[in-house]
Design brief:
Blueprint (H helix, E strand, L loop, with lengths): L1 E6 L2 E3 L5 E9 L1 E12 L6 E6 L5 E2 L8 E6 L4 E6 L8 E11 L5 E5 L3 E5 L2
Parallel strand pairs: 2-11
Antiparallel strand pairs: 1-3, 3-8, 4-5, 4-9, 5-6, 7-8, 9-10, 9-11
């Protein structure tokens, strides 16, 4: 099995910063694209940041210039540095990874359990 475990969420004031981490573990042959999504109450899940295995990155306009995604392939981790946080960034943040598993060499999408980020004064 494969697991993605996020950490680093919490409460922060507007204008503050947070760094999310996500660690992949289990029977992993290779990790392809990784990313972060978020879901606010009564809204659909949306992409926040994505990074390919060659470290090409993609961001929506809503976070461009404020959020930075990075990955450490040796540690099987992906990070999201969030700066200049706004109230509208409040959501549950989910880690995503496209992973080929070792046992069957099948590629599937995997998700973390989510971590709450609340931006409020």
């Amino acid at each position: 099995q494969v697991q993605l475990v996020e950490s680093g969420g919490g409460l922060v004031q507007p204008g503050g910063s947070l760094r999310l981490s996500c660690a992949a573990s289990g029977s992993i042959f290779s990790i392809h694209d990784m990313g972060w999504y978020r879901q606010a109450p009564e809204k659909e899940r949306e992409l926040v940041a994505a990074i390919t295995s060659r470290e090409y990155t993609n961001y929506p306009d809503s976070v461009k210039g404020r959020f930075t995604i990075s990955r450490d392939n040796a540690k099987k981790k992906v990070y999201l540095q969030m700066n200049s946080l706004k109230a509208e960034d409040t959501a549950v943040y989910y880690c995503h990874a496209r992973i080929t598993t070792r046992e069957d060499i099948l590629t599937n999408d995997y998700w973390g359990q989510g971590t709450q980020v609340t931006v409020s004064s």
